[in-house]
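Lab notes, practical 5.
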Amino acid sequence: TLSPLSIPAFYAASSAAENENAFIAVSKLPGETLLADAVTEDAVIVLSEHISSLHKQQHTMWGPLIQPELEPPEWPQRLHASLLNMARAHGDIPDAILAEALSLVKNCAAEVFVPMMPDLRWDQFLQQHTKLSALVDLDAFVSAPKALELVLLEYLLDDQQARIFSRHYQLEHQLPDLLSVRKPYRLLLFLMNVLGEKNLGTWMQAPIRFN
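Output from the prediction step:
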């Protein structure tokens, strides 16, 4: 109900058990899988409407989408701990990059949180007649700062698509200033391996789409 896109109806699900695979049963929706090299202007406009609608659903707590229960001061605290722990586990993050990201975490403090997908990709949508029509892969939704999603969108959109998105998004919302939060959020998304990029230099130096 939060998005203008069609969402599959849920029928049943089960986690994995002995001699039984995990499954989820949902309704089948019309449309074709959307590939990144076939994204049209119409698709970007619908994406902006989808994101804009979600960003109207604001919470004062963050965490799981259904029942966010973490207080705002915990966001930068846990972000700092997550970056540190995940970088150590990764084992190949230069000290200078990690130190700079950690020094900027204080700028990531937020008071308002919105529904977002940390693994947002074009192939999670269906399209009909060059427009997005449905969102069919939505298991990763959380409540988080909207700046995190906009940093992620800088990887999803090219320059022209970002201008289209920005123009339509700003009919409802003001774009946040990403300058002081971009590096810690980019490092977080890299460590989460959201889009599969393995080269940290390439990832951190990706083009800036939203100023």
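Observations recorded by the TA: DSSP finds seven helices and eight strands in the chain. The mean pLDDT is 95.
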